[in-house]
Write a structure and sequence with these properties.
CATH class of the domain at 47-130 in chain A: Mainly Alpha
Domain HTH marR-type (chains A, B): 19-152
CATH superfamily of the domain at 47-130 in chain A: Winged helix-like DNA-binding domain superfamily/Winged helix DNA-binding domain
Number of helices of chain A: 6
GO molecular function (chains A, B): DNA-binding transcription factor activity
Pfam families (chains A, B): MarR
CATH architecture of the domain at 47-130 in chain A: Orthogonal Bundle
Helix content of chain A: 40-55%
Oligomer: homodimer
Radius of gyration of chain A: 21 Å
Strand content of chain A: 5-15%
Largest sheet of chain A: 3 strands, antiparallel
InterPro entries (chains A, B): HTH_MarR-typ, MarR/SlyA-like, WH-like_DNA-bd_sf, WH_DNA-bd_sf
Structural class of chain A: mainly alpha
Strand order of the largest sheet of chain A: 1-3-2
Protein name (chains A, B): HTH marR-type domain-containing protein
Distance between the termini of chain A: 59 Å
Largest interface: A-B, 58 and 58 residues
Chain lengths: 157, 157
Amino acid sequence: MNKQVLPKSSEAEIEFGEMGHSLGLLLRLSQLRVFEVFYEKLSHHGLKPGEFTVLWLISLNPDAKQGDIARRIHIKPAHMTKLVSRAVDAGLVERVIPEDDRRSVRLRLTQAGERFVTEKKREFTTYLADENIGLSDSDFSELVRLLRVFNGMEDPK
Amino acid sequence: MNKQVLPKSSEAEIEFGEMGHSLGLLLRLSQLRVFEVFYEKLSHHGLKPGEFTVLWLISLNPDAKQGDIARRIHIKPAHMTKLVSRAVDAGLVERVIPEDDRRSVRLRLTQAGERFVTEKKREFTTYLADENIGLSDSDFSELVRLLRVFNGMEDPK
DNA sequence: AGAAAATGTTTTCCATGGATAGTATTTTCG
DNA sequence: CGAAAATACTATCCATGGAAAACATTTTCT
């Protein structure tokens, strides 16, 4: 038998105190958790979380302005440019400059882009729900509902 | 009278569809929202969100190892080094190297650090609760509870 | 019409935080 | 005991995304 049962070394447990109820900290930890599952399950498609979201939005809002989509999901124009360029290089998206207002850039999916989104749609909207996440189905939807209220996307019921 | 009532330009509304129920996207938007309020209300103290959290944890867990604290809140050792160095430079934290195991670094608050934490504690734990956030008090605590379950910090009740 | 303002995107530069490798110290094991 | 492994922190380099300015085009105002 081993000398002691200490699992690893000491693994000293750190107390959170009231900080364990801080919304900010909880949101950060949750997001890291989601990223973990995302990369574990979907990384083989070669897309980052925000990239699929943008493809999805373009598919739902064809010919929307690049800036409008960026603003809606709070990604900065500078970053949007790079993100869209990668999608264009990958052959999933095309930029269209309308004749009547040549300041703006409209986005639409290419054939390949459409195919990609319809094929992967289900996988990208359910990768978490399937996961054993510690939450019952009803708690999961309640969590989503509360976050939607928090973001002004839904009335408090 | 103006020619038209269009509020700004067109401000074309972007549809989210099912993506509006994506936990990942909702978490990201929520976190941005919290950061916004944080910087609006607390930036004058010159601390970033993670920095106050670390001070708090040191205060609750005096002489904890630098690495243990980092691991607990999922910040990487490399980043922890820089973060702690800034706190040391600011005179809030001191590093102690214990004689019996000189590989590790223990952290503790200086006098000034203790004073800072006790003075600001309330402000940093309540800056969101006061805020008009669209959630009733009970929904707010329910949200916190669900996030705690999601992070394995609490049993599903 | 022409100058000034507004709109929308892209370019350049910078801050943040992570990955990898390096250094120092202690522990383990032949 | 001495070499190898383990532990813990730090230094260097890199990727991501944002800020500010530059650029191009269109609209407004006199």
